[in-house]
Design goal:
Number of strands: 13
Helix content: 25-40%
Radius of gyration: 22 Å
CATH architecture of the largest domain: 3-Layer(aba) Sandwich
CATH superfamily of the largest domain: P-loop containing nucleotide triphosphate hydrolases
Structural class: alpha/beta
CATH topology of the largest domain: Rossmann fold
Bound molecules: adenosine-5'-triphosphate, magnesium ion
Distance between the termini: 46 Å
Strand content: 15-25%
Length: 322
């Protein structure tokens, strides 16, 4: 693969397994280079199958998967797989190998010498917060579930791939480390320049890390959009159901005033209280509550938006959120 992050495109992709299960049906969307796409969907909806199409572990019955416009079908599967960092759903570590040997797998396959491999292993284990000095010589059975997961992440990033496929990589981590790893992943991906497809069952995780979220239901793409679009403009009832339980919390935490301003009705009177568009909704509402302000204007990219009523923000946030 080239040394820059690729765009991944699915064009009319369907997959029917030999036993007749239609795992994917006519999926079309793309993941722009250097962005993180979260895949969400119920158990059995086809998320893992979609990832496997990217590195040719499965082949579509119809349609095409391409990297930077080049069909993966036409590339050597071995070279393809070595160029992609993949964390499989259950971690997939070799049980008889030490953590450091597992992490060094791809650099060795790529022909790196021992010194380079050692260096890459050390860096990757630090980045995944599983330091080699402490954990390098343990076998997977001598690690906790969360530690194994971090070794799997270290292995996926060790050869500095430009494309990462992560199948529920943080499932076994405790909430504090999980949120730390989400921040770390985002920072790492932006720093190294990678394209990432990440499967998660956790909508808050998708909001925290992804540039775009793809919602899959029984093999169909229901909606793809930014967290803001997924939260505020679900395409239908199935899409709305993904965020329903946590809709209010997600909107309060992750949306900014500028995101919702365009959806608010302009009110009469003055909005003497000025708030910047970058503020998170929860924070802005808190400030208004403290000052007793009922109306406000939003300052965003050199423009004044509004005035709006504080009540209208609550009405918008709660719409469809019950
Ligand atoms: N090798 C296979 N042969 C036949 N059917 C399969 C195979 N692998 C997966 N399936 C079926 O295809 C569908 C999609 O499976 P997939 O593993 O992609 O789901 P998933 O969205 O990753 O689910 P989960 O969230 O439980 O991991 C399921 O109905 C599954 O039973
Ligand atoms: Mg799966």
């Amino acid at each position: 693969m080239s040394d820059r992050a690729p765009e991944v495109a699915f064009a009319g992709v369907s997959l029917r397994y030999p036993n007749g299960v239609q795992a994917l049906d006519n999926i079309t969307f793309s993941v722009p280079a250097g962005t993180i796409c979260a895949l969400m969907g119920g158990s059995g909806s086809g998320k893992t199958t979609l990832l496997k199409l990217v590195n040719r572990m499965e082949r579509p019955s119809a349609g095409e998967v391409s990297l930077d416009g080049q069909a993966v079908e036409g590339t050597d599967p071995v070279i393809l797989r070595r160029s992609i960092g993949y964390v499989i759903q259950e971690g997939g570590l070799f049980p008889h190998w030490t953590a450091e040997r597992n992490v060094g797998l791809v650099p060795r396959l790529l022909g790196c010498d021992q010194r380079t491999t050692d260096e890459l292993v050390g860096i990757a284990m630090d980045q995944a917060r599983i330091p080699r000095s402490e954990f390098g010589l343990r076998r997977p059975e001598q690690l906790s579930g969360g530690q194994r997961q971090r070794v799997a992440i270290a292995r996926a990033i060790a050869a500095r791939p430009r494309l990462l496929l992560l199948d529920e990589p943080f499932g076994a981590l405790d909430p504090a480390i999980r949120s730390e790893m989400q921040d770390e992943l985002r920072a790492l991906v932006k720093r190294l320049g990678c394209t990432v497809i990440l499967v998660t069952h956790d909508i808050a995780e998708a909001f925290a890390v992804a540039d775009r979220i793809a919602l899959i239901d029984r093999g169909h793409l229901v909606q793809i959009g930014s967290p803001v679009e997924i939260a505020l403009t679900p395409s239908d009832a199935v899409a709305a159901a993904f965020t329903a339980k946590q809709a209010l919390e997600l909107r309060l935490r992750y949306l900014r005033l500028a995101d919702v301003a365009q959806h608010l009705p302009i009110c009469d009177g003055d909005g003497s209280e000025e708030l910047t568009g970058e503020r998170a909704i929860a924070d802005a509402l808190g400030a208004l509550a403290r000052s007793g302000g009922e109306r406000f204007t939003v300052l965003h990219q050199g423009r004044r938006l509004g005035p709006f009523e504080r009540r209208a923000v609550w009405d918008l946030l709660q719409r469809g959120a019950a």
